[in-house]
Structures
1.
Amino acid sequence: MFPTDTPSSNTSPEDFRYIVELVLKEAAIVLEGEKDYLVDSRLTPLAKSEGIGTIADLVRLLRRDSYPSLVKKVINAMTTNATSFFRDAHPFRALQSDIFPELIAARSDIRALNIWSAACSTGQEPYSIMMMFKDHFPQLAGWTNYILATDISNDVLDKAKAGVFRAIEVNRGLPATQLIKHFNQVAGEWVIREDIRRSIDFREMNLAAHWPPIPQMDIILLRNVMIYFANDTKKLILERTLRQLRPDGYLILGASETTFGLEDAFEQVTIGNTLVFRKRR
Ligand SMILES: C[S@@+](CC[C@H](N)C(=O)[O-])C[C@H]1O[C@@H](n2cnc3c(N)ncnc32)[C@H](O)[C@@H]1O
């Protein structure tokens, strides 16, 4: 942060603390480091667009009443939604070379795979999986696969469901051949093909709150979200993830994330340059 980036509003330390506690209570997100700057840069535009004024006015409103819809907007604004198609590449290489071939063979009797992209942000992760299915596993066309994609933010889910991406978004991680094959260009933006868009069940879900009933999963992608949580929350989520995963299923975390020291019932398996996690047998 540069000195000129210091918060410009008249937000008091108590107001900042109120937001930090609200974000922790509602989303389990621990705001760290430059948190005043983060709150200021994300909530000043929100306060303005809502016609509220400043963050101090926003906090005054929230203190007076709970305003669930306003709380939601604050949470949407405070989440970090960075993502990209085929993010980090190597987990997708492991899925293509080993994990999918193995699970497809194991499920050849029931002809069904369940995959969950937890914390899917704007949808690039589940859409990458669907493109991989189309491009490399055509035999899955006759299967009854279920791709669930969830996030706490209804803003990112609205964008994910629309399946419309800007050039800068498709240029990050998506090979040109797949762009041409799976997207249509409309008014300077890229719209994912309808059959891919419709094949994903996007739903709002807070990983730190009560989980609705969801099917047992063959693969759970829980990437780049646990970094925002405290250890107790990570443990709780990993324990539930364990119960949600089939005995021979795979858990895939972000590059800097691990189950180590948090949930011993998972063991680490190396596939190429990727670490994935399985139920210890
Ligand atoms: C950095 S993005 C990661 C997106 C994708 N998984 C990836 O790796 O590219 C983190 C996402 O986690 C979501 N998130 C944060 N807290 C959450 C919670 N408590 N429950 C569910 N999703 C949450 C955010 O809204 C955001 O879209």
2.
Amino acid sequence: MTIFDTAPDAPDSDADTSDSAPLVIRRPTVHDGGAMWRVARDSGSLDLNSSYSYLLLADHFADTCRIALLGDDVVGFVTGYRLPADPSRYFLWQVAVDAAARGRRLAGRLVDAVIDDLDGVTSLTTTVTEDNLASRAVFRRWADERGATLAETDGFTTEHFPDGHEAEPLLVITGF
Ligand SMILES: CC(C)(COP(=O)(O)OP(=O)(O)OC[C@H]1O[C@@H](n2cnc3c(N)ncnc32)[C@H](O)[C@@H]1OP(=O)(O)O)[C@@H](O)C(=O)NCCC(=O)NCCS
């Protein structure tokens, strides 16, 4: 299965015909922000940010975010941005796939779609809690498939958070 990520107006169609509706990965628009918020809300483990923040991401950061659709339904997304101080570094904020659409490596394909379209990006940074094994597997596999290096550092520790939030170790993938 291949995702071809081309241009904002040219969705990335998936050749997978195993579902009744074809899978498409594309940039979001402001109209998709609400659905992204819903996917985050229903994910079971993500921090749910304000609905306003998903509209901002979909509208202002569309180049560095992607959504996955089955038919008209948004079933997954990845959000992130280039670090303002170093645009060669992509920070992946959140990735989520609806429970019904899991098991097809959709998160990895969302990451492929956004990274492969970003000129000059040489590293991917994200944070993943210790217990998020599915997410860790996604990034481990993504790095392995590209022959990349995955390093882990402390990232955001419990002392950084004001509200008892668990630690968010930093994963940095380079060499892809
Ligand atoms: C993380 C997430 C996006 C992955 O969705 P997906 O792309 O459908 O993932 P898949 O089901 O195809 O599984 C991807 C890998 O995780 C592994 N995995 C899935 N669920 C797992 C679990 N509960 N425990 C351990 N590993 C698990 C799979 O075996 C697979 O590993 P492999 O590629 O080495 O075979 C999805 O689980 C999710 O939305 N979780 C909630 C949101 C979240 O935690 N996001 C990440 C933090 S930003």
